[in-house]
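ESCALATION

Customer reports they have been waiting on this structure for their group meeting. Please prioritize. Original submission:
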Amino acid sequence: MPDIASLFGRYGTEHAALSRGKESTDHGWFSPIYKGGSGGGEFVDLQDADSDAVHANASLDSLEKNRPPEKLPFERLLRNYIKDEDWTFKDMRGILRRLRIDLRQDPRYSRLILTEMLPSAVRNFQVALKVAAFLGDPSLNTPGSGNFVALIDHLADLPSTSHARGKLFQAVTSALKVGLIPVEEIHYIVETLPRIPHTDRVPSHKELRSTVRRLRDMWHAIGSCEVLSHKDLSPSTVETWLAQLTAMLPYDQAMLLIGDITTGYPGLNAAGSSWVSALVIQWLDLAAKSDMNDTVIRAIQELLKHENADVTAGHLISTTEQLARSDHSGEYKRRLLDVWQNVIAQMPHTPDLFLSPLWKNVPAVEGLSLQHQITLRLWVLQSFSDHRPTFVMSDLLHLFVSTIDNDKAHHTDLFTFLLRATRDLGLPGNGLLALSVDLMDLLERGTTSDHARDVMRRLESQAASFSEVFMDLHAYNATRAFLFGSFDATVCQMDVTSPDFIEQSVRLAQTGSSTDVWTLIRVLRSHTPLKLALYRSWIPLPHPDDMALVRYHPPFPAPGEHPLSQGWSVPDPHRGLELIHALAVSFATSPHLSPCRAFFLLHQLYRYLVDHGAPLRLVFVRSLYHAAVVRYRRAGLPVALARLRWVYTIVAQVEGKDITMALKEGLMLKPRDA
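Update from on-call: job pushed to the front of the queue and completed.
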């Protein structure tokens, strides 16, 4: 039988009573109970049934169970005994027998012994040695006592100057080598280890080295144990191990230990492992600061390799999102993303990777909008060098469009928001916008489409700005169909009524070529606030004697804000009208413009003023007459009769019929080449 002693009662008391009799004085396991109060007393043999002390202090249940009565101060006796630092383990076993305490049945007393010893271990190195020996004795440090958890909590509260800390922690590694620590307690120890020593400041390099050394000693101790191995550890324990080490990167010793753990415990990169993304980012940081790109790329690819495509897709997405949310500067973040893009481009993949539902499942992430999350997924998929999953990207683009439709304040086109998102996130260009144009079927294949893709690549890589594309007539015409919202927002941010803008516009109108001058016309056509302001230019300005405070608009919107989206008013209508008339004079007198081109531009300005309800002033009418009549005659060109009648009609409306008749008479008398 496995427990033959139970035939004779607990601890074999029935057999012992028959063999020795009542007069036996050899107590052994039949320890006397304590009689008396806390101030004093004596031990009484439980086998003496006639003892008054037994009947006075021990209940019937206690005698039947061969246990001391509940009222006796066992814990106080044990605590007082432990305070005597001269006892040995043999003495401790003896007192436990006399108190009827079996540590295997009641491990809380083992915990009590340790907690009473630990405070003295801080001051006395000999006691620290005794604690280490106690933890290595299975008969005293019994399973279920949680002594190693208590030890780690105590070490975390020790001052950093304690010399006993190292010796006490050696007891942990020694116990791991012989398999004395349960797996669940190992998890707690690893989780609590960075708190040793407990400080409120940022860990120094020395403290990081000490923590990594302890984690390494524990890992190697388990590896050398014949009872417990690395494979017996739970995945959550190893995940915690790696998470602690990842937080200490880029410390090189932590990097080496991470390599040992990842190779010694396969299948770690499971879904939801946050340390994987953190480790990848640290490796990317190492590659960005050194010439180890090839080594890092191979290491990351090996880490992300998983038989489950959903796990790999999850790591790709989470790593990209963490990079986008990192606190690195814009230029350095772009370098990290460049290295990450190279990793993705060279990463082997299977069709199952693109079939993962994680690409289309976009949960909320703190610090990233829904549009940013979709953009990051599109960027990752586009970064694969070959066999891009266009079907998945097309679905993501339609999902992106649905977010724009729900945006009532800023409703423009897809590519405006997509380009804005790539720039907000600082993503390197990889042809995402050009491919999006094809996927959304907005362009036909041909010369124009190729030119548009080239412009989109330049915009995505920030090789060109919206202003530069806007000023390039061919680039503007190639991309106007799907970037009109961006052009409109860019132009509307210009303060066209500022003195600097008016001065530069007049100079460009006088000295620029026909193509450059046409850019000014496009600015006027796209500037919605100016169009809304011109009809108010009929309102006269108050006389200076009235001392009236006139304000036509609040301060101009900040860069990046649409002038009409936040309730912004329109520019100063009189300054806007002044700009139009100044351009009219410059166009009419520019030596770089032919008479035909000058008249065409004046006609465009005339239609602009009339369409938006602005008044025609005297200077504009005379500029129109100069461009339509005077310059033609000076160049020896005929003036069409219909044009003359149209010009005379406008002059009559502004200056009156008398001036019109005088102009007609002067024109008839004046030679054509005058």
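Sent to customer with the following note: The mean pLDDT is 75.
Escalation resolved.
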